[in-house]
Amino acid sequence: MTVGTDQTKRGAVSVVKYKYFLNTSGEKSVSRFLTAPELQCDFEKGLCSWEQEQSGGDVFDWARISGPTPTLNTGPLRDHTLGTGDGHYLFIESSLPQEFKDTAVLLSQVFQPTYQSSRQKKCVFRFHYHMFGLQVFSLAVYLRTTATGLGEMLWEKYGHQGNLWHRETLYLRSAKPFQILIVGTVGDDFNGDIAIDDLSFLDCELYDGKLPPSLVIPDATTPAPTVLPHSCSEGEFVCGIYKECVSLSQVCDFKHDCSDGSDETNCVDERCDFEDGNTCGWKIITYALVLNHAFHWAANQGKTIHYGEQNHRPAVDHTLNSSEGWYMYADSSNGAYGQSTDLQTPVISSTGPLCTLTFWYHMSGFTVGSLQVLVRHRNISDLVWSQTGNQGNKWRQGAVFLGLQNNFQVILRAKRGISYMGDVVIDDVRFQNCSPPLPSNQPCSPEMYACANGHCIPQDNLCDFINHCGDNSDEDPYICKGFSGRCNFEFDLCSWLQCREDDFDWLIKAGSTPTVGTGPSNDHTLRDPSGHYLYLESSFPQGISDTARMIGPLLSSRSSQCKMRFFVHMSGDGIGTLSVFIKADGRLDLLLELTGDQGNYWQMREIPLSHSKDFQVVFEGKVGHSEKGDICLDDITFSPGCLLGPEVSMETTSPPPPGFCPPGHIVCEKEGCYTPEQICDFTENCPDGTDERNCGTSCSFEDGRCGWKSSLADNFDWALGTGSVQSIRPPYDHTLMSENGHFLYLEATPVGLKGDKAHIRSSVWKESSAICKLSFWYYISHKASGTIRLLIKTENDLTEVWNKTGHQGNEWNHVEVPLRKLRNFEVIFEGIRSRDVSGGAALDDLEFIDCAPRAGIPGSCPTVTDFVCQSGHCIESHMACDNKPDCSDQSDEMNCGHIHDSPGACDFNMEEEEWEERCQLFQDAEDDFDWRIGRRTETPGAGPQSDHSAGGGGSFLYIHSAPQREGDVAKVTTRNPFPASIGVCHVRFWFFMHGSDKMGTLKVYTAGPSGTPLLMWAATGNHGNQWKYANVILSNTASFRVTFQAEVGGDMWTDIALDDISYTPECMVAGPVTPHPLTCAEDQFQCTYSFQCISESWRCDGEPDCMDHSDEERCPTVVPGTLPPQDDCPAGHYQCSNDLCIPSILRCDGVLDCPNGEDEYLCPLLKCEPGELVCESSPGCIPLFKRCDGFADCLPFHSDESSCYECPANFCLGRGLCVAENRGPHCRCQPGWTGNRCHVKEKPSVTASPPTTEDTQLDSVYAGIAIGLLLLLAGVAVCVLALCRNKCHTRKHNAMDYGVTYDPDFDPRAELPSVDGRRDGCHGVDSKRNFIPGLSISVYPWRRENEDLNWKDTRMSFSNPLYNYALDVNGADRKSSEA
To answer: SMART domains, from UniProt (predicted)?
Structure first.
């Protein structure tokens, strides 16, 4: 056929046009149609009527070319029109300088609307395209009706389409004038050229005009949103329904509080599957400066995947499992390494206690980056979940436990990897169980726990480390007293023990584990980087199948409905096996086994526990086949039905010790005995110091750590080291001033961040004196850096008492910190890194000074609620009137009628038919049998033979087990409810459980109005043939009754008895009972820590008069104030603020003579001898001989030359006679007063009793002074002798002088001798210790102690200062071995 000439094409309005194109077989075909020449283009002579985009809507232009494109293996070899290398076409060049997703836009002419009644034909657009190459991306056609923007997409094609020309026909419809855009997009490599040719329009009419601009309304003219008339107050949200308001705290809380749901309109949806590109309220945040190639989240479908991208993101979504389904993805073809993009929720006002974020993610590709979940509170974001690297070509589930939160945002953050190969994709994001609980107006049912705020929660949710109530009343330590063995691993292993007969140990960790691609981002308890959990490190030096074991507390076979809950995290492609065993009689029975990847989230597991023998739970972790195999545990809890195993009597489980110790005593290592109460009391009761050895005593660190223990949970530690000039440590110690001397210092680690903390702590000290001090030396320099804090941890408080940071000079510095009168406290040194991987700050020569309680004074108690014995000693108030003398003079058991006669208290010394009425107790009608009273039990060999009273002639309450069945229960309950209280009410009683090894259980419950029982205490097993004392804290969020429940054991010899029940006064008033505080007179100073009043004139006089020395603390050097103008008074006078002139001798004399005391302003606080004057211009006192000598020594008021021959008015304050002598006025004071103006209360002699508010009589004063002078002379003599002696003993003894040698058998991890003989279930421990004769007692300095210096062995752990967990005497978290 003949091809028409150019002249023919130009001259015809409508011509027959023949067009060649290559079909799939490569042969020429002919297409014939009618069209106007201006509506067609083959690009042989240019662009015809088409134009390049010039308004900034693209990045580069289409290029016109003939023949093949410049890049091999992409683009056509010839055009479509002629089918030869000479024909022309348009193409986009995908090589440099173009980048991925750069666009080129070609614009058509403007056409008339297609919807016109006169038109019978359809407007058609036809074109040919060529998309050949591995990295071809996309070609699209858009129709727009405005002058800017892309408009509506009509057609789009992605990826490689073969090496041939394709034809596409599009039918165009528009009610407005329109324009066609052809958009080519560059792929992610140079093999991505796209070509177009032979573009034509059929039956389309040109429009004579331009498209209108896009409608843009300036912000200034944006009308304010329409607000319905309302009566809502400030702080309320206006619902869409008239006269309906809700609190702003209810907006965006996943609950429709407005009846029309408008409070949740602009919030994130509870569920989102991203179908149709809907982001459901999630907002896309992009941090790139250039948006054209930004790494950002976008909605997309699997069907848009182009060639080469099929392994980078999923072909189907998770919701529909279809290529038509939608998901959100972050395309790594954009952006650069490390760039991130966020999906962010609006602020969520509140969530429920079980709120969990779940989602599905897809991370496939060789260089895929990471996906993170963050929780943001205002400007603070915490990482709560993360996944990094290739996770395979499949959808995986992620979950984040959010729990109760307020005013926060959730962020899904994608980070780009090092290349384009691997996108981050998410789908099906859901907030599950996130609606906050509604307070109930109905009382809680018996199956529910009543929270303090009125909410009701299932009993199963009690004490599981999750705040279900919203006010933490379900997690209060006192409410959870009955839950044994619970542990969240915040600083130690609680009652869990590491086992030696394994290959390595479980570790405690905060934040993410060291290995990327395995382990959680944070713990389950706190859900932030500061929370700790237990984990098994699977990387080097561990090998495949290495095991780590830990064993729990001994649980009783009498446990019923016992179950254990825990949270486990096992994520990574190298996960091994977690096994849970029950151990009894030396056998291990498998309860649960988890192998392989379980998902990247914390999962709760629950296991029922029971055994015919006392048992323990064992966790065993086994290393998998790669380092990405960390196994993590957190929040282990046991239900109240899990009872601790019985205490084992020491005399029945160990051979008799050498010598004799009474029952309940512990044998000293060398000789002697001590009681558990004498451990860590600042007094050595053993000659060899056994009772104080491991308490964290005074220490020079020359022979070990003296019982100071490190925390397992720290990222680095206080290390024992010697001086070094080259390293960051101090160059020498303080004790020996030698580089060979030892001290504790903050170790530097290869990986460590600023702010990392390390702790060492003492054991729990029983009690200290009112003048107890801790002295120590510290070293912080520019090289040995860090912050050191001294903390005091008591049962309910953690207090900082000292801290120091920054360069303190290249020397050891001394500090002395008053500890005062404390009870049951720990001393903790905290070290903090001041910069990354740093350390070196050091401690040395710790010394407790005058801390033994006997160094205090009678009447000085740790707390104001203490009971003061007649002897002056103090005991805790709940120990008074409990039928157990605790004062040495037994005064705590005197005058106790008000306690013993209170409702519920009972000694059962009455007739059987009277006890319920008189004791205000009642038998439970729904139990199996009843309690009874008697003088002895009915079954020989079971129960007590007499009551608890001293004479043994009274009665007691007991259960007779012989006629009952095993498991039968008897309950007795107080009739009158006690007011609600937490942690202040105590019940004291004596119980007897002796007879059979199959002994049952005794439990104490509190029950509120709903009847829900809360276990407060339980005992099981054989407790020996004796009455045992119990002191139980009772707690309940509502008014409660107290129930004693006894359960029959396995045979007839399981009687259980009770006697002498009493309650503390706090139980009656729902709060601590505080005695009236000591009140001092107006002119007296009340000592801060001891119950004393002293004269105000003794305050800051340089002599401690309070036994706690508080009168000499925080003393200023000068009296604060501003001097009034001094213009109108003559020389030798001082002008007061009211213009009164007083003789200047009254200036700085300690007496307030001006109306406002301004005559003492800016005066130095000095103690001068009688007759001497304090002078503001002199650093010292003006001596008597310089007074009235004609020379003014005290400027500017010349007080030393004032009133030399007269007595100023009221000079002696009415307490003495004023005499004007040659050195000025002088006071002859009455008895009991002293000072230049008789203004100082005379102090009693050293033999007198503590000062009182009454004046001392003259004869007693003179007698006291005489005796005091004698004692003073004797004291001086003793001091001279002591000084002489000390000069001969200033050199510190070498350790070898005491025979100190390394003992390989010594194990600092071994426990103190067990007070109660409880089995650890893991190992028998050798409790031998080296004894070094001739040592000073351990609470004073330089205690030598042979200690194994193996660092792993010295990593003793301790309770988190932020958590109120009691430590047992044995230090249950220390290393022990499996039995």
So the answer is: EGF (SM00181), LDLa (SM00192), MAM (SM00137)
